[in-house]
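hey so u asked for the seq, here:
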Amino acid sequence: MSSNQSFKSQHEEAYASLMRGLKELDLQGPCVPSDLVLIGDHAFPLAMNSRGQVLIAASLYGSGRIVVLGHEGYLTAFPALVENAVTWLRGDGSDNLSVGVQRNVSAVANNLQKPSFQVEVVGAFSDRLEVGVYVTDAYSLGSDPTELVAFLKAGGGVLIAGQAWSWAANHPKENTLHQFDGNKVSGVAGIYFTERYGEAENLPVYPQIPSSWKSLTTGKDFKDDLEFLLQGVSEFDLPSDCVFSEVLVHGPLAFPIGTTEDGRPFLAGAYYGRGRVIVVTHEAYLAVESMAPFWRNAIHWLDEGRRGVVGVMVDPALKVLSKSGLKCEKTNFRKDLSVFVCTAYITEHLEEIQNFVAEGGGLLIGGHAWWWAQTHAGQNPLTDFSGIKKCTTRLQEKFGWDAFKKVFAAYHHMSNFPDDNGTKMNLYAETFSQTVGMNLTGFFKAWGWPIKTATERKLSQLPYWNDHPMIQYR
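ran it, structure tokens below
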């Protein structure tokens, strides 16, 4: 079973538990909900109106679960839904019956007076409460809900309800996705309260998770983001010797930043959880001097005013990114960074980096997938490309990015490009070896590449790379 199928199966089971015994949700009445935006693999809708607006949703984060209601009034309007939600949020097999209810929604406690729940009304969340589930509105989280996010990640359940349209009206210059208190918790799990009104209807409860093509909308107006990122930038002067990949800009919170004349995006940004991401589809662009004004803007956009440390894995980019005015350090990934800069070929700390962004960090990542796609016939770069191969990093460490530029330039002048995977890999090994003047067949063979005897003969006159990092695995 693929990961997508696994998620879908988990979501359907969760949906059945959450909507058990419910025939309809009559949302018509005094409550004007927020339209919720969902991103990622783990978030799924529970209630969707005829316009495709999501008004109630659920998600997973770390080991925990969260249910989000688009208006705090729903906490008392739908007691059966709340009871189902608290039961599901507690987790399978959990014997922790304690439920913490924030005092501003204390009426919920009256609906949970059953032997299966031990309810305590509290002023604020604390990890000292030792509850299994915490119920709150979206306005009573405080300025730093770090403890509540940690509780969720560690396996706790959170039921949160509210709307953001009134907050947005009173804070017109603020970023609702990141500054509205409710989103500081729900956002890590891929559910966001938005400033858009949700249209309230009498909604039937379907046997399966509701879906609609109308829900495929942009989750934010990115005008302010683009104005910030492109300040002082009139064009992108890209080096001609770099072959970039086209980036698929997908999802309601992703947007293109730079495109070619024929409209193919090579640079894009996105909101993810409480953090931000910028993707450029060739790592060499990170070190291009003419792009320094953009990279300065990008680093500050990712840093979001924290003025924290920018960790840079890509040596050639360090000089250019240091012009941002922020402290840039050559380092591998660390949790105390504000922004992390790496290539798409990174193979370590992947889950940690994902959580780092979800919880508010910035990520700038560069790389291309076209070579990986050519050498991995039958595999899908959208799902299987994990950052190409670690061998690319080893080659960069030994020979630098200039070698890659020369290899890519050589490909521009080739014709009759091979069709089969093995021949493509041999061509790359041969081209790279000739470019750097060293026989790299042993290195590529150590990575499992099917290097042919004919390729070894062609390169036999070149000196061998005898101290490559994979020598121990021969």
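The longest helix spans residues 3-18. The radius of gyration is 26 Å.
lmk if thats what u needed
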